[in-house]
Amino acid sequence: MIAGSRGGVNRARIIKSLHERPYNINQLSKELDLDYKTIKHHIDTLEDHDIIFNFTGKKKYGAMYSLSNRMEENYSIFLDILNKMK
Question: Any residues with CB less than 8 A from the CB of 7 and at least 6 apart, and which?
C-alpha cells in the first residue's frame, strides 16, 4: 500500500518525515515541496490504514500527525522494504 501503489514515493517521504517529528499538513507541504492537496490525500490514506494518527484531535487546520505505534514498531521493516525496492 505504501511503496507499491501510485503515490508510494510521496507516502514514503511523508512517513520518513513523521518518523523524525510530528508535522501538520502545511509544514509537510513546505518540507517536502508538495502541494497541500497532494499531502492531504496521502495523509488521509495513511490515517485510514492506521499508519499515522492525528494526535491533536483537530479535524482540519492545525491537526498534527505522527506515526502510529504500530508503524514506529515496524519502521525498520518499512525501511528494509523500501531499500529492496530500489
Answer: 38, 41, 42, 45
In a domain, 35, yes or no: yes
Q: Distance between CA atoms of 22 and 5, rounded to whole angstroms?
A: 24
pLDDT tens per residue, range 70-79: 999 999 999 9
Contacts of residue 86, defined as CB under 8 A and 6 or more positions apart, other chains included, come to none
Taking the whole predicted model, whether its pTM rises above 0.90 is answered as no
Q: Indicate the number of domains in the chain.
A: 1
Q: Is residue 3 part of a domain?
A: no
Give me the domain span that covers residue 34. 8-85
Q: Consecutive 10-residue runs of the chain (86 residues): their mean pLDDT?
A: 68 95 95 94 92 86 92 94 80
